[in-house]
Amino acid sequence: MSPERERLFEEFTAARYGALRRTAYLLCGDWHLAEDLVQSTLIKVYARWPRLRDPDTAGGYARTTLVRTFVDGRRRRSAGEVALAEPPETAAVGADPDRRLALLAALARVTPGYRAVLVLRYWEDQSVEECAAILDRSSGAVRSDAHRGLAQLRSILGDSVHEIAGA
């Protein structure tokens, strides 16, 4: 890879690492696993970097790679492994930590495929079409998964859903 392309990749990594790490945390619910997921993603992006025509589109490619790596990894996991939801190391400034922790704990219990859709749609604020492209699914499948994922989230939260939404 040329020194110029190498420099662009380093700048890209420095600029996007935090956002990728937050998205990875929302997907897997563990900061250490999120770090591993981001590292795996960046290795894949680096391998593809010389063939990217426009480095400005690398953010979308990296997010797509991150989500697909997460979903593929969940498919391969053995049935004996269970991801444990632990509270984040720090809460967002101005956020109610109790609401945030309850929501993150519930999100960690949602099926990984539905969780990927929920994170992309409602945390990353992606459109249905953008989610469909990232997840390599139809728009209808994304809408259906979002609906089912929200239903699963509501059933996990039970009566506390009104406290979280209304507080």
TrEMBL record:
<keyword id="KW-0804">Transcription</keyword>
<dbReference type="InterPro" id="IPR036388">
    <property type="entry name" value="WH-like_DNA-bd_sf"/>
</dbReference>
<dbReference type="InterPro" id="IPR013249">
    <property type="entry name" value="RNA_pol_sigma70_r4_t2"/>
</dbReference>
<feature type="domain" description="RNA polymerase sigma-70 region 2">
    <location>
        <begin position="17"/>
        <end position="78"/>
    </location>
</feature>
<dbReference type="Pfam" id="PF08281">
    <property type="entry name" value="Sigma70_r4_2"/>
</dbReference>
<dbReference type="InterPro" id="IPR039425">
    <property type="entry name" value="RNA_pol_sigma-70-like"/>
</dbReference>
<dbReference type="InterPro" id="IPR007627">
    <property type="entry name" value="RNA_pol_sigma70_r2"/>
</dbReference>
<keyword id="KW-0731">Sigma factor</keyword>
<dbReference type="InterPro" id="IPR014325">
    <property type="entry name" value="RNA_pol_sigma-E_actinobac"/>
</dbReference>
<dbReference type="Pfam" id="PF04542">
    <property type="entry name" value="Sigma70_r2"/>
</dbReference>
<protein>
    <submittedName>
        <fullName>RNA polymerase sigma-70 factor (Sigma-E family)</fullName>
    </submittedName>
</protein>
<comment type="similarity">
    <text>Belongs to the sigma-70 factor family. ECF subfamily.</text>
</comment>
<dbReference type="InterPro" id="IPR013324">
    <property type="entry name" value="RNA_pol_sigma_r3/r4-like"/>
</dbReference>
<dbReference type="InterPro" id="IPR014284">
    <property type="entry name" value="RNA_pol_sigma-70_dom"/>
</dbReference>
<feature type="domain" description="RNA polymerase sigma factor 70 region 4 type 2">
    <location>
        <begin position="101"/>
        <end position="153"/>
    </location>
</feature>
<keyword id="KW-0238">DNA-binding</keyword>
<keyword id="KW-0805">Transcription regulation</keyword>
<dbReference type="InterPro" id="IPR013325">
    <property type="entry name" value="RNA_pol_sigma_r2"/>
</dbReference>
